[in-house]
Write a structure and sequence with these properties.
Blueprint: H1 3-7, H2 26-42, H3 54-62
Length: 71
């Protein structure tokens, strides 16, 4: 966003999307994750995996009035 857009009253926003990747077995899951990562890079999207942190990821995305530190 450039300064002219900010002066005009446009605010920068970020979108959050939860993506679930599944597979029939571990190899299938790894292949599907690699495919998703490839498609995200092509779409200029940043992915942040939440391995074993699904509850924090859900709270951060589903409860916009709260903030969860995902770093």
């Amino acid at each position: 966003m450039n300064s002219a857009e900010l002066v005009a009253g446009n605010a920068p926003i970020d979108f959050v999307v939860l993506i679930t990747v599944t597979g029939r077995d571990e190899l299938d899951l790894e292949a599907n994750c690699a495919d998703m990562l490839s498609k995200a890079v092509q779409a200029n999207c940043e992915l942040r995996p939440v391995f074993a942190e699904q509850d924090a990821g859900f709270l951060a995305s589903a409860l916009p009035f709260g903030r969860v530190d995902m770093s």
